[in-house]
Design goal:
The chain is 31% helix and 26% strand. With 394 residues, it is an alpha/beta fold. The chain has 2 domains: 201 residues, Spore Coat Polysaccharide Biosynthesis Protein SpsA, Chain A; 163 residues, 2-C-methyl-D-erythritol 2,4-cyclodiphosphate synthase (60s Ribosomal Protein L30, Chain: A), CATH 3.30.1330.50. Helix 5 crosses helix 6 and helix 8 packs parallel to helix 10. The structure holds cytidine-5'-triphosphate (CTP) and magnesium ion (MG). The site of cytidine-5'-triphosphate (CTP) has 23 residues, from helix 3.
Amino acid sequence: MSIPQRSRVAVVVVAAGSGTRLGAGMPKAFVPVSGATLLEHAVASIRRMEHEAQVIAVVPADRVDESRALLRSVAQATVVPGGASRQASVAAGLETLGDDVQTVLVHDAARAFTPTALFDAVVAAVESSGEGAVPGLPVSDTVKRTDAASRITDTVDRSELVAVQTPQGFPRAHLVEAYALATEEVTDDAALVAAAGHPVRIVRGDALAFKVTTPADLVRAEQLLAASSLTPSAATVAVPRIGLGTDTHAFAADGELWLAGLRWPGEAALAGHSDGDAVAHAMVDALLSAAGLGDIGTAFGTDDPRFAGAHGEVFLSATGELLAAAGFRIGNVSVQLIGNRPRFSGRRAEAEQMLSGILGAPVSISATTTDGLGFTGRGEGITAIATALLLPAD
Ligand code: CTP
Ligand code: MG
């Protein structure tokens, strides 16, 4: 994959720390939460930014190859080895900025659940002001100053304080200059840029941009994803995603055949609680499965009397709405129908047009027989197998 060198924005994701306080026995960015590493979660959120950004992942030196492989499916990323301190790691990332980059965001991989909207907001603030912008939240606890013996010496006025997060964004020239001038170690980039004499403003942060630091933060992260997996979305999973669905129906003694969204006069009907449209049902399962939204039974309760006799179109358009609400766009759906009847080829174009129209995405259908073998060969029923590809919504 080629790296987008012409991006105007770059995000340096620092992931080279050892995660001592987490104590997971591996570098923090490689700790999995709900099946993906913190690094993957962080990059997945960046990948959905409004403007295509150059993503620079700074990782432990012995994990460069592994990280490249890990990120390949998430985003096009430049992967470089980090240094002994966070500051050294950021500096390593800055070495690889593309020529056209004007705005640089620095982000902790440990803030893996930072919403994409915060990245976009920081970019917008930097670009509109020409100054650094960092997300911050008001401090809710009362803050005390103490002496060496842990005695309180005074109470700090909370209204003057903000807890800052990442991504921290800066005009490229400010950040590069600040790093060139840096003489001491600091824990965030805003401090260096301010020390170099450039203004930095606070934009509204987000509680979801919390940093995974201790085991309790990891529990919080797991709970967060468990809750959001009940309503998965393109914001919480890596896309593209594929899904598979199959459906089988027996021929019925009477009724009319509905298949691939079309009525087939004179053909034997299929049995089923709804209209028995195996093609449409396999497509729905493939689409829901790709999104991680369950299947046709869990999504629509196909035993529900409201769906008695419902046509495939009802399920397909409802599925399209569920996917859109979860932030997905359908790439395409491919279906194969297996059975002796109806002879499909004569109406293939009509069926493809009908189903593509319902979903707003290309649907292709092939049909085959099983050489007289099995229940389809004996003409007892038909099966359909579908695959679907989902992309992030535009
Ligand atoms: N970081 C880095 N290179 C370092 C140290 C830290 O890239 N040498 C990154 C971490 O991977 C993390 C971010 O800076 O994403 C914030 O640092 P922190 O939360 O302190 O992470 P760790 O240093 O890994 O954790 P700990 O301090 O508990 O060891
Ligand atoms: Mg640290």
